[in-house]
């Protein structure tokens, strides 16, 4: 699903990790752990294509490697990446359509994430947990094999942590893969990848 070979990433003057190699297979979840500042977000952003590594390669087992990032993965950062001035309905439609979802996919995501009562609110008026559910909707609306998730559970209550765990398991059962930066154990069986002590 994704293979990382001899990856070296710096931010500013600071070397975060050197010669990091790992593979995430279809049906597998990996819990990316490490202290605050160790570089978990930076690693995920590098895999998503937002940070250029100093060295190393990232390859996807996609049919067309040139299109691999665009169509192969979902990146969900811990800041959600939502436009706060839009109504939830418009923001969901924009994000989901951009990710390639059709109307049925969007309707399914609204249902699974119980977003209907929130859709006429401005994004800025949503709670942190509600915003996370809205951001996650595109992941459900436009299925892609690899999920890169940065602290996906942080703002969620017990009910939605459990629900997200079930969505993750369903994704893995269908042959998907997940790499999630977390400070707590994932609610699905997962291999640990620890990138260090930070600073
Ligand atoms: N744009 C940037 N420019 C310079 N340094 C950065 C930038 N973004 C992050 N860093 C630095 O890179 C290091 C790793 O940050 P990163 O956010 O990847 O860590 P993390 O493991 O996700 O931490 P946390 O558990 O606190 O979320 C930190 O020292 C941070 O200050």
UniProtKB/TrEMBL annotation:
GO terms for molecular function: ATP binding. It comes from the Bacteria. Gene3D superfamilies: P-loop containing nucleotide triphosphate hydrolases (3.40.50.300). InterPro entries: AAA+_ATPase (IPR003593), ABC_transporter-like_ATP-bd (IPR003439), ABC_transporter-like_CS (IPR017871), ABC_transptr_haem_export_CcmA (IPR005895), P-loop_NTPase (IPR027417). The keyword ATP-binding applies. PROSITE patterns: ABC_TRANSPORTER_1 (PS00211), ABC_TRANSPORTER_2 (PS50893). Residues 2-195 form the ABC transporter domain. Keywords: ATP-binding, Cytochrome c-type biogenesis, Membrane, Nucleotide-binding, Translocase, Transport. This is Cytochrome c biogenesis ATP-binding export protein CcmA. It comes from Brevundimonas denitrificans.
